[in-house]
Design goal:
single chain; mainly alpha
Length: 247
Amino acid sequence: MRFLDHLEEWLITFLMAAATLIIFVAVVHRYAASASIPGLQDWLLTINMSWAQELTIIMFVWMAKFGAAYGVRTGIHVGVDVLINRLDDKMRRKFIIFGLLAGATFTGIVGTLGAFFVWENGAHYAFLSLTGSPFGDVPEGPTTPDLEWPTWMVYSAIPLGTSLMCFRFLQVFVSFVRTGDLPHHDHGHVDGLEEVEPLPVEVDVYSMDDNLHMHDLTHTMIGDNRRKRVTPVDPDRRRKGLGGEPK
């Protein structure tokens, strides 16, 4: 199961790199084919790149579906949890468990319905063709306009990506029940940059509570940290006029 830990990153990285390369080649081909260069123009016009746009659209659909599963695993999906974050630990735990199980149920239903749709849309015919079985009344299924690929291959992103998303919901649920911790994502972190320790601040008036993600049972809310950072004023410094509360 360890190979599933970074499955989304590998797939999204490959699709993004391949889509960027295909778009780059298609754009260069389009502009180079319009240039009046004897020999080169005739050769480029024989190359058909009309399929590039359709293929990149398919790639972005697959990136979106597996990116949703990546979002569940890393905790970057946005949700309005203003009320839940202000509940006590016991009630917040119940709501978080309910939300995770509801997400797993919904994605499980969508993944199952998507699998039936793909099966009836041509995957059944492809399976019978692969095994050499008689087709009977099973339809072959439609194909894409430019690539002429079976559409069931394109639509397979729905059951595969959504089923992986369901698995990630269950993964997060099991981890939360055991440890009380939810996946957290540092939006300010950039890979490859050196981490700089911020200067200590007594009161950060610009800090805001994060009401876009559920607070788990092990991390302290930002508002609590802000209140704890307030330090008492030294009475000797106030009496000597060296600082403290304004006069």
